[in-house]
Amino acid sequence: MRCVIARYPFDLTKSGVLASMKGVTPEIVTGESVTIGRRRYPVKQVGQIITRQDRRDFTGGEVIRAMTRLGFTCHDRPGAEPVRVPTPLQTASALLGAASLEV
Fold it and tell me: Which domain of life is it from (predicted)?
């Protein structure tokens, strides 16, 4: 498949991307990512390896579009952990429990 990343045309294939990423240790995922094989890689790391360009020369969106067209699964930024907020009943029982201990 022909795609353009950072204004340069590339002929990418799914097997070619798999071969390029074979043996590459994934960096810590803090933003958008792509699953290649059984591993999840940051899109900028994948883009750097398959294009041999500096990460500052292309956007993550360009790599995501190319990887999606090749059939790889792409992921958005990881969300923050949900914050646990006590229900009014839990808050009241906690306050009543503390009050009964003071008596």
Answer: Bacteria
